[in-house]
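task queued by scheduler; priority normal; single chain, no ligands, no partner chains; default sampling; output format set to structure tokens
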Amino acid sequence: MNHKYFYVLRNVNSMAFVGAVFMAFCLLPAGEGYVWWFMWIAVPLYVSYLVSMSVISPDTVWYFSTSAVSVLIIIAVYMVVYLVRWRRSKKNIPGTTSELILEGLTTFDLAKGVE
């Protein structure tokens, strides 16, 4: 396979594959359990994709070593996105009505702000 053709094929396929996995990750509901199951599925899929691309690669050793580094970078990016989503979900939790009543707002009208 021609080197130039392989690099174009690899770049386009990699962008599509990583983009699809990333978009699926962004659509997950916030929660630690979902992320870990997603990692158990996505990482072996990505590694199998890299192995299949390294089979047709002109330089297998170099491609496989750079691909292993890319797996580590992608995992780090996913963890940062997970942390940001997790922090954002913690801020959006409204207080319950029992907490509002305990704060001194004895009726629902006062809790809602209606006087």
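post-processing summary
- The chain has a mean pLDDT of 74.
- Helices lie at 3-26, 32-55, 60-91, 97-102, 108-112.
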